[in-house]
Amino acid sequence: MAGRWIKGMGDTVSPVAVVFLHGVLSDGEACWRHENGTYWPELLSNHPTMAGVGVYEFTYHTDIFSGSYSLSDVVSALKECLHLDGVNQARKIILVAHSMGGIVARRYIVQRSDELVERGAQVGLFLIASPSLGSSYATWLEPIAKVMGHAQGRALTFCQSNAWLNDLNSDFRNLLALRKLVIHGRELVEDQFVAFKRLFRAEQVVPPFSGATYFGEALKVPQSDHFSIAKPEGAQALQHRTLCDFIEKIVRFIDNSNNVWECAGGYRTRVGESEISIVLGRIEEYPAGRETAVVLPCNEYFEDHCATDSRTALGVYIQRHCAATASVFFASVRQQCQEKFGEGTLKEKAEGELSESYGSGRSIFVSDPSHNVAGIALVSTTTQTAGQGLAARMSYVFDGVGELFKLLADKRINEVVMPVLGAGHGGIDPPLALAGLVLALAEGVRYGVGRQSRKKITIVVFQKTPLDPPDVTLASIRKTLELVANKT
């Protein structure tokens, strides 16, 4: 049992992977190779429109001596290989499944549906002569399967008492009906029986009523049998051209049923006349332009200690972009605080340490000493008191965003980028902090000062590296934007 990349995924913001799954008593080599040497996974990887699409082939244990190695065991192995080999990094996974491979694919989708929804994945299911309701020939072979103890063969039998297959059929239909997971599907069925096909017509190994079940009108591939249907002769073969068309449509597909669209690295929506995007990454690495204001969180003291703290968004941003001019930057911060707020209030920040507080939920705007962006806005989202430490409240974020919009209106700045305010040392759970921030921004866009100006707002959800899980999943990001999206 092993998986292998025929061609790796391209370096795109929305990677796509095609996974080939063979059928019973076969393997990843014999299933897909035509007698002229054409190998379908390679044929697909060389197709000109598949430049950024990864192609992966999975082989599992299914020979006549596989014994008690069941379909559930196959699904477990598939799940593990997709994880270990990085296939799960794909935002769109297309399972190309022949015969029993389609049953494996459907069971995998049903079992992992919550995980797929959670990471915002879309699934394509391209079923090739797959016995969704079983195969009468598997029933005929059942005595042999019993003698050999072949668990997979017994699971394929076409009969009302096949509880495993009947339950899977019901579970998969329910998953399609719920529409929580975006599933694209297409079914291909064989044209004729394998043996004696030139002498007389016989029932197919997988008849159309069993192989065309879920996705509307199925395609019968002319002159194909149960095995040749998975072995296209070349690039002009009907099944290959159909697969390429299926993949291309999924690559182009954008689910905007709730007025939320996929964008580079995340999702975006429109709120009023403005646009809010939420992307994965690191605030210090986001490519902000000279017309953009960078918004960063700070505590109520607006102090320069944060500049050296690599655990904060403010610290890492200043160290990356303004390290040589950090002292100049924080001198400007102190000047802006005094001009805007006047004298601060002395508070015991930590035991034996007094500092001047300017209050939570406040915002100031400072010119960027590096001249890379239009300016840097600081929003005080946390308090810090001796014996209590740091604490954030969503009310601070709402108040701070309200002041921020006044500053943006004064400066005539309509493009901003920020991390998730309140989710760092403030301790607010990141999904909750993101939801609160989006609601605060939506309120500012619709009702705040300067609302007549169309704004472009980008929130960067922390993700240490592209291989690490983000602080907030893509599915949660999408649901958050659906809360504020224009509904008309």
From TrEMBL:
Pfam families: Abhydrolase_6 (PF12697). It comes from the Bacteria. Keywords: Endoplasmic reticulum, Hydrolase, Membrane. The keyword Membrane applies. It is found in: Endoplasmic reticulum; Membrane. The keyword Endoplasmic reticulum applies. GO terms for molecular function: hydrolase activity. SUPFAM superfamilies: alpha/beta-Hydrolases (SSF53474), Macro domain-like (SSF52949). Residues 18-167 form the AB hydrolase-1 domain. InterPro entries: AB_hydrolase_1 (IPR000073), AB_hydrolase_fold (IPR029058), Macro_dom-like (IPR043472), SERAC1 (IPR052374). This is Alpha/beta fold hydrolase. It comes from Pseudomonas gessardii.
